[in-house]
Every structure is written in C-alpha cells, then in structure tokens.
Amino acid sequence: MLNKNIQTFIACDAEYDEAKIVLFGAGFDGTTSFRPGTRFAPSAIRNESFGIETYSPYQDKDMTDYSYFDSGDLELPFGSTDRAVDDISERAEVILADDKLPFMIGGEHLVTLGTVRAVKEKYSDLYIVHFDAHADLRDDYLGQKLSHACVLRRCHELVGDGHIFQFGIRSGDREEFRFADKHTEMHKFSFDGLEEVVEKLKGKNVYFTLDLDVLDPSIFPGTGTPEAGGVTFDELRKAVTLVCSKLNIVGCDVNELSPVYDQSGVSTAVACKIIREMLLALS
C-alpha cells in the first residue's frame, strides 16, 4: 500500500484503493547531455497545476468525476544511474501489482526505461508509442549505455522489432535513422500516420511515452534540448487524446520539462494541461 502524497497534481487526491491511475514523479537528470534541470519538473508541475481547471472543454470531462492517486516523487540517487532506474521500476511494479496504471512524470527521458521494464514484466507482448523531437536510438552516448539519448534503443532491446512507433522525430545522428528504418516505425516531423497506427494497435498492450520537446520551442522553451520545427500545442493535444482514449494504455509518462529555462512559467502550464488531457482521456 502506498501512502498519499500531501502535495498532489490537481484533483489527484483520491484514496489509493479507489484510483485506477497512480501518478509518481521521477525527477532525475543525471545523464542530461546539454542543459540539466528536469529534476525539478515533477514538483513544478504539481505546484503550477492549480493554475489550470479540472474541467476540459476539449473533452467535456472533469477530473473531479474520476479518482486519481498521486504517490509523490521518488528520491533518486544522482550518483547511480542504475539505482535510479531500478528504483523507478520498483515503484511501477508496486502500482502494476495492484492492477493500476502507472503514470510517471519525469525527469529526463531515461526514466522511461525503468517503467517500461516493469510494464514489460507484466505484459510480455508490449508495444510503445513514442512522441519526441529526438530519436533516442543511439547504442551509447559518450560510452554510456544508460543515457537519455539511448532510452528507446534500450526499450527496443526489451520489446523487439515492429513494436515501437515514433512520431515527431526531427533530430538524431545518421545511424539512429538507419536503425529506425530497420527496427522501428518512425514518422518524422509530425503526427502523420498516427490514426493508422492507432487502428493497428487497438486491442494490444501499449506503453505511451511523451517527450514534451516534440513541441516547437516557441511553445515550449522550457526544455533541456530544444529543437526547432516542432508541433503545435493543439496538434499534440489531439494526438495524446487519440492515443490515450483509443488504445489499451498499460503505462505512460510525460518527461523533459526543465522549468528553469522558462521563467514565464508557460512551459510548465503547457505540461500541466497536456497531463490533464491525458488523464481524462485515460479515464
């Protein structure tokens, strides 16, 4: 049994036993290759979530009509990447053992590997839908296998060919794109083809990972590795709603907000609103 976190994401204050979706924060940025700061995202998102409404006019649904539990942030050891990933897996395993859906708020993108490991243990035939600016398919980064630049490559080692579907990708080295041609289904630059992929994956167990830098940095500047040429907020909102409402999502995460790089708070507000739309679409 997990204990209730005192400070929660807006409307995520139900009792653990009542909730089908359990949030937890993984504020880790120990392998960030450019600008650190994503360790502060989970707490910033909780604080700023009270600046948005619980009601979504997009979906005509209100968070107060559902039960969500926020289990708080993990205290992750920044000196040990392996330990941090293991700790994330352990939290996800507790949630999954109680037949609940783990919803992780990162953190850099490497945190996804911890939750995917736990989900894959429970659901052997697992598919991954990945929104991102970056391919994250390097075999190593500066000699390190555990890196935010390698996270989808490590996930591929778990789920295999034909099980990863990537959207919005507009950055990576040449070898990453060559790897994708053989092993994943990559949709570069946009969400073109998403509806067809959703139809293909209906009835399958799907993990959804959202790197918020898929957004154009004019909309979302608060991130460690901004990439020009991203999608709009409304394009992302429609895409996450489609994925979360139509597919059997068995785990998910939102990551790569680095609030210190956007003092206006707009990037954090964007993250909060996307999380609200995901939670409602999953409900």
UniProtKB/TrEMBL annotation:
Cofactor(s) required for function per UniProt: Mn(2+)
Keywords: Hydrolase, Manganese, Metal-binding
Family membership: Belongs to the arginase family. Agmatinase subfamily.
Residues at which Mn(2+) binds: 109, 132, 134, 136, 211, 213
RNA-binding in keyword set: no
Keyword Manganese recorded: yes
GO-annotated molecular function: agmatinase activity; metal ion binding
PROSITE patterns: ARGINASE_1, ARGINASE_2
Cofactor: how and how many bound: Binds 2 manganese ions per subunit.
Designated name of the protein: Agmatinase
UniProt cross-references to Pfam families, sorted A to Z: Arginase
Organism for this UniProt entry: Ruminococcus flavefaciens
GO biological process: putrescine biosynthetic process from arginine, via agmatine
